[in-house]
Structures are given as structure tokens and as C-alpha cells.
Amino acid sequence: MTKPKHIHPLGVLQQIAQALKDYWYLMVILLTARLGHLGFAISLVLLILVFCGWPILRWATLTYQITPTAIIIHSGILVRHHEHIPYSRIQTVQRKQWFYLRPFQLEELLIETASHEGHAPEARLAAVPTTAAHLIARYRQTKPTATTGSAAVIPDQTTVATDTVQAYYRINPQDLVKFGLTSMIFVPFLLVLLGLYNKLPKSMTTALVTDATHLALVLLVSAIVAFIVIAWLGAFIWTLQRYYHFELTRQADQLETARGFFQRNTVSAPLNRIQAVRFKQNLLRQWLHLQTVQVLIASKAAGDENDNDLVIMPVIQADQAMATLHPFITWLPTTLPSLTALTVPRRRYQIRNALLIAAIPLGLLSYWLPTWAWISLPILLLAALQGNFSATNTAGGLITSDLLAVQAGHWWTRDCYFIPVTKIQSLHLRQSIWMKRTRLAHLTINVRHGNHNQEIQLRYLKLSAVEHLYKWYLQSTLQS
Predict the structure, then answer these.
(1) What is the spatial distance between Cα 169 and Cα 248, in angstroms, rounded to a whole number?
(2) SS3 for 441?
(3) Distance of alpha carbon 94 from alpha carbon 361, whole angstroms
(4) DSSP H helical segments within 321-416, as ranges?
(5) Which SS3 state, helix, strand or coil, does residue 471 take?
(6) Are 325 and 313 in contact (CB under 8 A)?
(7) Which of 384, 379, 353 is nearest to 457 (CA)?
(8) Which of 65, 69, 61 is nearest to 154 (CA)?
(9) Mean pLDDT over the full length of the chain
(10) What one-character-per-residue DSSP string does 165-196 give?
(11) What are the start-end ranges of the H helices in 369-411?
């Protein structure tokens, strides 16, 4: 594909949807502003131009080329932009296929490099044939075989890397149900329901509260439980459709995930761009011995239930995770190693810090609102338990001479990272004057993550263990 091409006309719908997402507040201002008939008509015309006319112009002025060496995109209405993206610079290629695009064999392509800034991808092609992504994947796996002057000689199609699948995983329905049942995403759903309740007319909410005061305590508790169940059920259904038919594939040096019912979302990332592997467990999944596995990459394309990491195993039994992942990421160990080199010898320091953080706002609350002072007791108890949780789940150690594993606990979630030494951006040892007497130190490991830095902190470790790790890192950097 060497000639410039327009995206499919259905891409206009994608552009309009994006415009509605970016400028929805203009519609709110129009509906709430007090305008005369003439002012309303003028504003309506302007909105139509913003939400329809501008996307059509953007579609008409955008063309793309997929050449053997790079992706070239020409865009811009008032100012023309010409973007050249070599395949070697691409971090991830994300493919989104809404259900209405499937009959036409179309999808949206999002292409990101390590140099892009902000949340927007480097290139966004709203509706292109599915063959475009396959062609990009084949060219990414192909290397020029020779050069003539300044031009690279590209091998013909017979020498392009084949699509041999080296490893494959597909989530089964039972695991998908476990993933939905143990997800904590119902908390945001609960907040949304509370927000909708606050949007009800005041007369209606007042009547509901008045009627509730006459009900028995059991009925009130039942209403609260029903409210939580509705939020949990909505989150459960949302999670099921989002990770429907989740698949993980390794082809050559690429990892590819695919998921989704209404929108099939496919992300491919080179193995050598993986910064770290994270095993994540909330408190419920710890009790059930389940884990979610993610990879940290220098891209915002991934996306999961909480952040922008690439989920490669939504849920898996903890004792099976390492063996299942090894064929996909071969530098991972086949069994879960012991992480006893870095531990917290004195948990009371983290418990103390958690109590201090909670005590200051609670003290102010008790001073200004004495009738609410009773709420301090359960919150202080939760703070102490959280401090103990963080200390208990802090661990780490060297797995091999070039692989580090560290574990940290925060907000009732345990994260275990496996980090190759070549991907560590920096390692920081910190010790206050009060910690010198106790021979303790804090350790901070910085890893690239999306458009920013992932800071992994382990607090109140033995100074000797931290110094040993620091020397290992210095020697590794000198050798490299």
C-alpha cells in the first residue's frame, strides 16, 4: 500500500463521536444558557459545525500510507501536518473494532511511539481495513536486508516473517466469572449511583428520607445492601463484556492481546519494549489465591480495569501463573521465587505512619464537629490494619544476576514486580537521620511507565540488604 488513501467514510462517525466526547460541555452550555430565539439558532448552527462540519473536514483532509519502511500520515485543515513514523519507533499498535464496523471489516488503529506526549496517540486512523494492521505487523517483523546508497532494500513478501504462533492463551468462562466477581471496579459504579442520587429533585430525596425514618432498621440495612448489589452487578456485567473472549498470543517478538464484546480491542507490543511484569492482587484475590498479570510498557494504549497497563492474564491461579507466563516472556522464572532478601523487620513504623496520616484530619473533624468524633475509632483501626498490610507485603530479592523482583502493599492491594536490570531507570537509597540508629533505609526503584515514571517504593528495609542491592545495580550498569 504505497498510494495515499482516505479512511473509510464510516470514520466520520468516529470523528463525530470524538468531537462529542471532547466538546460535550458546549452542548450543556447551550441547553442551560438563557438565549433568545436568534441567539439559540446561531448557537445551534455553531454546534452543528463543531460536531459535524469539523469532523467531516478532518476526514476529507486526512490520508495515510503504509510503506515498507514507515507509516506516513497527512492531515490538517488550516495547517497541514506530515507525519512519518518508522516501524522501529513504534511502541504499541492498538486496534479497536466496534460491532458496527465488523460487517465492513474495518477497525480503528491507534499507533504510539515512545516520544509522544499526553494521552493522545501518535497516530489515530478512525476506520481502516483490518488488513492494514496485518500489513503493519508484517513490516514490523521485517528488517531491511541490505542498503543501496541511502535507500533500504526491502525483502519481498516471501521473506517477510511468518505469523507462527509460539504461545497462545484464552481465558475460559469460569476464570472470566472469577475475574468479574473479584473486581473492585464496583466502587466507582457505587460512586456513580450516589452521584445520580444527588441529581434527583430535592423534593423527591426529602420524601425518600422521610419515608425511610419510619422503616425498621432491618429494612434500611436491606436498602443499603441492595444499593451495593446493584453497583456490583453493573460492574460485573461491564467487566464480563470488556474481557469477553480474552486472548493472549505470542508471535515472533510480539505480544498481542484481544478482548471485548461490543468493542474488540487488540493491542500488540514488542517484547523488548516491556519495562516490567506486575502481578497484582487485591485483598479478595489474595484470599482466593488469584492474580492479575500486567506488563508495564512505554505507552498509554493498554488500558485495564484501573490504569493503563497492558493486562496479559486477567485472572489466574497464583501457583500456575509463572509456568503459564514463561512461554510468553521467557526471562520470567518458571516458579514463584522466594522474596525474603528484602523484608520489613519492624512493622510498627509503618503502622505508626498510617495512624499519623489518619489522625490529623480526624482530629480536625473531632474539633469542628464533636458529634462526629465517634467515626475516628473505626477509621483509626482501618489505618492501623493498612499499615500492617503494607509492612507484611513488602518483600524482594534478586532472582538472577540481571533480574530483580520486588513486592509492595498499598491500599489493600499487593503488587509484585519483575524488572530486568536494563529496564531500571534509576535506583535510590534514602535514610533519614533517625533511621541511622535503627539501621533501616527506604528503597525507590524507577521504571518507565506510559508517558511517565513508575516509582516503586519499599520502606523500612534493612540497610545491609538495600546496600547490597545498590552495589548490584552499580555493577550491572558499569558492565552494560
Answers:
(1) 5
(2) strand
(3) 44
(4) 321-325, 348-368, 376-392
(5) helix
(6) yes
(7) 353
(8) 69
(9) 81
(10) EEEEEE--HHHHHHHHHT-TTHHHHHHHHHHH
(11) 376-392
What is the spatial order of strands in the sheet that 424-430 belongs to?
424-430, 440-449, 452-462
Task: Quickly tell me which residue has 486512523 as its cell.
Answer: 125
User: Which has the closest alpha carbon to 259: 277, 237, 241?
Assistant: 241
Q: What are phi and psi for residue 169, nearest 5 degrees?
A: -140, 140
Model confidence band, residue 419 (pLDDT cutoffs 50, 70, 90): very high
Sorted by sequence, the CB contacts under 8 Å of residue 247 that are 6+ apart come out as 168, 169, 170, 171, 257, 258, 259
User: Among the ranges 78-92, 201-215, 274-288, which has the highest mean pLDDT value?
Assistant: 274-288
Angle formed at CA 457 by CA 456 and CA 460, multiple of 5 degrees: 160
Cα 171 to Cα 17, 223, 249, distances in angstroms: 31, 35, 12
Could you tell me where the beta strands, DSSP code E, fall in 31-145? 63-66, 70-75, 81-86, 90-98, 106-113, 123-129
Closest by CA position to 272, among listed 86, 475, 476, 92: 92
pTM of the model: 0.77
Query: Which residues lie below 8 Å from residue 167, measured CB to CB, with a gap of 6+?
Result: 248, 249, 250, 327, 328
What is the per-residue pLDDT for 180? 87
CA atoms within a 13 Å half-sphere pointing along the CA-CB vector of 107: 20
Q: Give the total residue count for the chain.
A: 480
Strands 106-113 and 123-129: antiparallel
pLDDT at site 227: 73
Write the pLDDT tens digit of every residue in 310-366: 899 999 998 899 999 999 999 999 888 888 889 899 888 899 888 888 887 777 777
Q: Which of the residue ranges 23-37, 107-121, 136-150 would you say has the lowest mean pLDDT?
A: 136-150
